[in-house]
Amino acid sequence: MYYGPECISAALQAWATRRSIRIEYIQPGKPQQNAYVERFNRTVRYEWLAQYLFDNLAEVQRFATRWLWAYHHERPNMALGGFTLIQRLAMAA
After folding, report:
1. pLDDT for the residue numbered 77
2. I want to staple 3 with a disulfide (CB 3.0 to 4.6 A). Which of 7, 64, 84, 90 is the partner?
3. Domains: count for the chain
4. In this structure, is residue 42 part of a structural domain?
5. What is the mean predicted confidence (pLDDT) over 1-30?
6. How does DSSP assign the chain, residue by residue?
7. C-alpha closest to that of 89 among 73, 71, 68, 65
8. Phi and psi at residue 22, in whole multiples of 5°?
9. 10 inside domain
10. Within a domain: residue 79?
């Protein structure tokens, strides 16, 4: 069964309302208002999501968990002076 974006959006809104969560939206066509998330989404999409075919959601979750660990622990971040996020956090502590 296919659920369109309108259906998913309504379900998310209902879920959030039941939990007293307010959803904040950015202006349409203004991804710079949400730059960190947009940048992360682009990185995920280009580095692995669009390069593999997955058989099921559990496989995607396992891959995503491994990738996220490497992203924070092994991947140098040029915005952090070539340090990984974990190294930078350790220096700040």
Report:
1. 85
2. 7
3. 1
4. no
5. 81
6. ----HHHHHHHHHHHHHHTTPPPP-PPTT-GGGGHHHHHHHHHHHHHTGGG---SSHHHHHHHHHHHHHHHHHTS-BGGGTTB-HHHHHHHH-
7. 73
8. -95, 125
9. no
10. yes
Among the listed residues 9, 70, 71, the one whose alpha carbon sits nearest the alpha carbon of residue 39: 71
pLDDT, tens digit, 9 for 90 and up, residues 38-75 = 888 888 889 888 888 999 989 999 999 999 999 889 98
Q: How far apart are CA 37 and CA 13, in angstroms?
A: 20
**Residue 25 in contact with residue 12, Cβ under 8 Å?**
no
pLDDT (0 to 100) of residue 72: 87
- Contact assessment for residue 59 and residue 66, using Cβ atoms and an 8 Å cutoff: no
Domain assignment present for residue 84? The answer is yes
* Structural domain boundaries enclosing 85: 56-93
